[in-house]
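Audit log entry. Action: structure prediction of a protein-small molecule complex. Ligand: 2-acetamido-2-deoxy-beta-D-glucopyranose. The ligand was supplied as SMILES and no pocket hint was given, so placement is left entirely to the predictor. Protonation state taken as written. Sequence taken verbatim from the request; no trimming, no tag removal. Recorded inputs:
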Amino acid sequence: MGTCWMQAIASLGSAHVVACGAVATQGRATTCHLLAVSGSTLTNQSAVRVSEQADFLSATSLASPERVVICFSDWQTVSAECRSLQASGDELVEAGNVTVDSGVTRYLSLSPVSSDRALLCLERQGPLGEQCMDRRLQCEYWAAAGECTINPKFMDSLCPHSCGVCTTVGLSQGRCHVLGVSETSIEAGPEVVVNDGITWNFAMARVESDTAIVCFSDSTRRDAARCRTVWGLREWLPLQARACTENASASCVP
Ligand SMILES: *[C@@H]1O[C@H](CO)[C@@H](O)[C@H](O)[C@H]1NC(C)=O
Ligand SMILES: *[C@@H]1O[C@H](CO)[C@@H](O)[C@H](O)[C@H]1NC(C)=O
Ligand SMILES: *[C@@H]1O[C@H](CO)[C@@H](O)[C@H](O)[C@H]1NC(C)=O
């Protein structure tokens, strides 16, 4: 119990739902609950702690093997983590974990692409030092509203990235990774850069067995919405997933 900060939910087979929540009043510690579904009744069966501190959460269901994948990251740690969860009787148990990407990651979103694969898209910040990270969700809004000049002392300490005081840093990127799930493990596979810029609010959908459309906001460009076609999702070779550089039109699909 406590103030829920972020939530994610996904079905696990026909009889269960996995509901995960980061609890603000417990330092954003994140727990996933196995809920049994029977008619209109939900019963809390068991729970597993997946993270001590999460600011971004996303979950998706996979059919074969029957798993829920949950990925999370926070404002401070380097890289996103994913867990594969399964039901074992009334217990929710971990069936693998993987660390994805090697920079400060934010705004992650998961979507299924096949019975045993999922697409994870996220923003990876450029090579920022700890000093140069934004520390509030609202930084980009505040910066756009002129707060960096109105209130520089506060803003430069909390929102150095959005206020552009880290002049030597690389640009943030939007990236997508294919995740593969087996009975006992979860692996991060091919990855692709879908955007150069501060990338957030991802939404993805598979459109063909091998292809997904990925849409996001780019706040480097006044939060313009952009979409990319990503393909190669069935391959398991790095660099096989690619993104169109321009419109997500039919010509983007090989
Ligand atoms: C749900 O069940 C788990 C395990 O039995 C328990 O730790 C947790 O407190 C329960 N949650 C609620 C809200 O009852
Ligand atoms: C991740 O999986 C490994 C085994 O593959 C296990 O030893 C480790 O405890 C797991 N880590 C977490 C944080 O669950
Ligand atoms: C993208 O699509 C829009 C609308 O169809 C069009 O106006 C624009 O020229 C296209 N951009 C490129 C680079 O093809």
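Audit: result stored. The domain at 4-133+169-243 is CATH 2.130.10.10 (Methylamine Dehydrogenase; Chain H). Residues 246-247 surround 2-acetamido-2-deoxy-beta-D-glucopyranose (ligand 3) (CB under 6 Å).
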